[in-house]
TrEMBL record, chain A:
Pfam families: COX1. This is Cbb3-type cytochrome c oxidase subunit I. Its main location: membrane. It comes from Hyunsoonleella aestuarii. The keyword Heme applies. It is a multi-pass membrane protein. It is found in: Membrane.
TrEMBL record, chain B:
Keywords: Copper, Electron transport, Membrane, Metal-binding, Respiratory chain, Translocase, Transmembrane, Transmembrane helix, Transport. Subunits I and II form the functional core of the enzyme complex. Electrons originating in cytochrome c are transferred via heme a and Cu(A) to the binuclear center formed by heme a3 and Cu(B). It comes from Hyunsoonleella aestuarii. The keyword Transmembrane applies. This is Cytochrome c oxidase subunit 2. PROSITE patterns: COX2_CUA, COX2_TM. The lineage of its organism: Bacteria, Pseudomonadati, Bacteroidota, Flavobacteriia, Flavobacteriales.
Amino acid sequence: MSAHADNHAHDDDHGHHHKETFVTKYIFSQDHKMIAKQYLITGTIMGVIGVLMSMMMRMQIAWPEEPNVIFEALLGKWAPDGVMDADIYLALVTIHGTIMVFFVLTAGLSGTFSNLLIPLQIGARDMASGFLNMVSYWLFFLSSVIMVISLFVEAGPAAAGWTIYPPLSALPMAQAGSGMGMTLWLVSMAIFIASSLLGSLNYIVTVINLRTKGMSMTRLPLTIWCFFITAVIGVISFPVLLSAALLLIMDRSFGTSFFLSDIFIQGEVLHYQGGSPVLFEHLFWFLGHPEVYIVILPAMGLVSEIMASNSRKPIFGYRAMIASILAIAFLSTIVWGHHMFISGMNPFLGSVFTFTTLLIAIPSAVKAFNWITTLWKGNLQMNPAMLFSIGFVSTFITGGLTGIILGDSALDINVHDTYFVVAHFHLVMGISALYGMFAGIYHWYPKMFGRMLNKNLGYIHFWVTAVCAYGVFFPMHFIGMAGLPRRYYTNSNFPLFDDLANVNVIITIFALVGGVVQILYLYNFFASIFYGKKTVQNPWKSTTLEWTAPIKHIHGNWEGEIPHVHRWPYDYSKPGHDVDFVPQNIPLKDGEEELQH
Amino acid sequence: MTALLTIIVLVFILVAIWQMVKIFDLAQAKNENDNPGVATDKDNSINGYLMMGFLAFIYVITIVSFVKWGDLPLVSNSASEHGPTIDNLMIISMIIIFFVQTVTQFLLHYFAFKYKGEKGKKALFFADNNKLEAIWTIIPVIVLAGLIIYGLNTWINIMGVDESDDPLVVELYAQQFNWKARYGGADNTLGKANVRLIDIDRANILGLDESDPNAQDDVITTELHLPVGRPVLFKMRSQDVLHSAYMPHFRAQMNCVPGMITQFGFTPTVTTADMRQTSQMIEKVANINKIRVENSKPLIAQGEEPLERYEFDYLLLCNKICGKSHYNMQMKIVVETQEEYDAWMKEQKEFKNSLVN
């Protein structure tokens, strides 16, 4: 393949001898490993903000009338005498969603691990374009900064929900947050999308062109398959959100009527005529739904890799796993309408989207069963990464199953936009993807920082988080089925829901415990960068190429020649070998058969 | 205050955990091999048992949720004709889900426990099996095919409005942050309307076309009254932002979209009075009132009015984020006999008489 020739040509460009200054090494770095760390740390900071917001929301829901010193301290003028304002509650809902979905679970997860692992696992010196990679990170950083700045504008940040449906998001008179706050939100997201596209294009080109000798597509680790397909989905769907954002900016600032029509607000008729908010919903969800797979696929890839390595067993059904990734990716682009069953679109479309949506359950089920079978008769090494991977499968199943209810248009009528939905998507994409991310961090931390995370802190982190995640989201299904709408600042105006208040208190307590225990993780993460135990080169005895690279990060990843690949990535406990893992760069023995997987 | 105390307690617990981990680390340090930070056989064993503990936790939280809160979900006692079909589909889906959940969680956690690692043990090299893959592809296909067919049938029945059985036509009109209902009057035909025709000075608040003969006898109300047993066809409109007309007891919901008219139809089957008499509702209301009495105590202590006694009413809620007071955008729904409905309707003002000159 010509790709291999290119790769060798590429070698020459990357001598490890050119000088690096502090700025080119730590700030405007073009090295994928450093960029991965930058993504991770920026994502972590955004994650802290997002989680703090959710804890404040939970306190407001559990104790709605009570003054709260935490609100007073953190929200300032938005919590006079410590009582949270209704506008800021909606802003918290909005920014929490935006930050967690895009800044933490898209950029923080996919950005970190695609950057770290694609070149290392396919045997490349770096990304196809180190420069674009750097630009991609700095655009992400800029969009994060703008999003954080938007929290401090006079009238408050965007507050129309993370879905920012117009007209609410388009009209400053409809809501305080739809002024400057929403403008900054849109600008931030437009920059974010540019960053995401640059990153995705880079990942795609790198995976296609820069694989080392012998690394055929069917010898790629599943992590790389997932990052690759994620990038493809991103390239297909993110531009549509960009167009929606641009059209919304036009409606807001230049008087066009793409999404607006026949509006009478605050005593006057507006000039908008002929647009439709439903059009915006279509454009938004054409990204919005694939987005949940952009979030979950990389987590699936990380979990597949970690499970195989820690089970000391090949991942079960490698080809079926790839096929299901492809099936999920394809289906993910034709199911967006299940968010819109009752939006006023033609009920016939609802039927079509119900059909395609429920089909996604099939590849998802295949994946879940394959993970479970991977554990069967393994020799499970219960490292924190493995625990988070098992936790991932558990929450993915629990959360995924309720998708069968929500994807069914007839059932959606009564649970749409209730807490049932909140419970569903938090389990299946929020918690699951977060577990995937934690698993990845615990597993590849030694690769990133050359030191180990403290495993005992890791165990406590996992078990408390796991109990709290179920404690928060399992009961939440019940209050949703009782008809409690989401995004209500308080439920005290509905005596009908008084019997749900005690459930909400229980949920909040679990949420607070689960949130606070993340401090342990943060301590572990940052302290171990400096004080963690030094790692050996291949601490988990894995087979993939990144563990053949030296512990110390060097520009170009490997000294000397790039390793060649002779086998698939899952030769764990292969009969005929003394050790229970055979790295990909070890040639087949005489007479050894490569598995026809 | 509660929140602050909770957080302070949590932080103390954290510090305690921290110290304990340090002790653990010291105790482990001397046993550790040349590969620090990697799970030992002891870790594998402890965490394997914890996996079984966690499986028990999942089952317990499931059972506790059902025992304590199993009566909360709206899966019975529906008040519309199509309600029971949704409820049945819901219950069937739930049974399937709980079966799959129980089995798969068991397998996952049990395997994690059973095959916990030991030094010197070798895992089974088991990479592929087409038969197994086929089984767990085909079984979900069959189950989902059934659910899809059942679900689509239900959906089409609900959404298909049969205009021939002469439904009562009612407009639901949404604005920040309240609801209005408009009835077609004697001719059961809604007059033309557009927000551009709103004239607050003349009290034409919904923008009815004053020249349209059909509009003259329209009736605009702030409470939704429905005669029991008669199909109702709702036409939804919004004047400002998206809202969603959610009527949970009737298993009905549809968004209200500025610039277009959306619709949803159902037939109410239980009057408000009858619903209040069902044993399920009596129990629920009694429970809520007990909670309200409890919540009133601190209010009384402060010399404030206690909370009002709760009596059940059907409600229309806004279920699409619509701005600051989204949390309190509601309208009372009264389902009554035809005679009661006629009597109520007679008291309402027709549009032509409600205008101010």
